[in-house]
């Protein structure tokens, strides 16, 4: 299959189209504006619909409406925009509606910086909206991996009738890499399904789709959600383990930070340091076993590397380490990128004497 040289935002837009997305509603915000820009002309070419909403809030509710009809729906934004969408994301979860959500992170908190960051980890994995719901969260580290994940994301969303989040950053969104684009998926003539509005061919046909439940019904729904989360933890964890078999030091990093961390591992290996990398591809469910099952008779420490200060993933790492080895962190924040030389220096200092 021929490769194309594409910008991250545009590549995931094309992957979404080929994966069956036929509705996108969004609002321009740097650094993800090229995603809606691309889809504004690409979706109409395949019979889809693009809407630039008047706000982030309006856009996520348009996605809610489209998803209720069975159309594969998607939105994208960046950090503060996702915060504005959080109520609508919670409503999607409550109504059991599938949707694909892309967060191209930027520096924060507040309006922050338009430069890349990884400061939305807790929001994405713990509290993407009110009500304690969870959703699958993917964190690609190359444009190709982002294409592959976005291509399959509508399938996950429909399987679970749940929103799915792709957590990226402005660096991945705006960088250009070679990608292999997958084939166009064949879609049924009608998007209607047994649970959608209009499933019997009439405007009013279909089950009641609502985010509102009586107390007993809501408790039952939450219990079912716990069962679904356990299925995710059993079947859907994705992780890369790189040179960890004999490692005395293990870096944990995701997304763009993992690209830097992998180079650091290679460089330090050449210097004789036994070091490896655990790269979560799913941030939720978190790859607990990869960390819990390390050989702690050999492992001297773990280092959480993120484009965030503080390192937000550290708590999840420590919950699996359970005090069997120290956990350190190194990061940059607010839109300042990691680079391999300064990161290597920081890791070396940690290895030599603890926190740098």
UniProtKB/TrEMBL annotation:
Keywords: Oxidoreductase. The keyword Oxidoreductase applies. Residues 14-186 form the Pyruvate flavodoxin/ferredoxin oxidoreductase pyrimidine binding domain. Residues 247-335 form the Pyruvate:ferredoxin oxidoreductase core domain. GO terms for molecular function: oxidoreductase activity. Coiled coil: none annotated. It comes from the Bacteria. This is 3-methyl-2-oxobutanoate dehydrogenase subunit VorB. It comes from Candidatus Scatomorpha pullistercoris. The gene is vorB.
């Amino acid at each position: 299959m021929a490769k194309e040289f594409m910008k991250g935002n545009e590549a995931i837009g094309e992957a979404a189209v080929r994966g069956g997305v036929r509705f996108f509603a969004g609002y321009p915000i740097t650094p993800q504006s090229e995603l809606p820009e691309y889809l504004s002309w690409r979706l109409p070419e395949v019979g889809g619909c693009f809407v630039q909403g008047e706000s982030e809030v309006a856009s996520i509710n348009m996605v809610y409406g489209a998803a209720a009809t069975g159309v594969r729906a998607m939105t994208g934004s960046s950090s503060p925009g996702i915060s504005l969408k959080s109520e609508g994301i919670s409503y999607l979860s409550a109504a059991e509606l599938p949707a694909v959500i892309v967060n191209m992170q930027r520096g924060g908190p507040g309006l922050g910086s338009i430069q890349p960051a990884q400061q939305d980890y807790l929001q994405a994995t713990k509290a993407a909206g009110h009500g304690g719901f969870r959703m699958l969260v993917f964190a690609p580290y190359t444009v190709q991996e982002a294409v592959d994940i976005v291509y399959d994301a509508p399938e996950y969303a429909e399987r679970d009738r749940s929103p799915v989040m792709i957590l990226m950053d402005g660096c991945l969104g705006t960088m250009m890499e070679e990608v292999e684009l997958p084939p166009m998926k064949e879609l049924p003539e009608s998007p209607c399904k047994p649970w959608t509005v209009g499933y019997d061919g009439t405007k009013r046909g279909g089950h009641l789709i609502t985010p509102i439940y009586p107390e007993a019904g809501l408790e039952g729904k939450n219990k079912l959600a716990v069962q679904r989360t356990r299925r995710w933890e059993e079947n859907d964890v994705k992780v890369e383990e790189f040179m960890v078999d004999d490692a005395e030091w293990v870096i944990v990093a995701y997304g763009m930070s993992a690209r830097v961390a992998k180079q650091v591992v290679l460089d330090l290996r050449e210097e004789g340091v036994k070091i490896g990398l655990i790269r979560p591809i799913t941030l939720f469910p978190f790859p607990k076993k990869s960390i819990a099952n390390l050989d702690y008779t050999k492992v001297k420490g773990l280092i959480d590397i993120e484009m965030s200060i503080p390192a937000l993933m550290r708590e999840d790492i420590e919950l699996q380490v359970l005090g069997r080895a120290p956990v350190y962190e190194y990061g940059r924040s607010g839109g300042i990128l990691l680079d391999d030389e300064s990161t290597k220096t920081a890791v070396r200092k940690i290895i030599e004497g603890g926190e740098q």
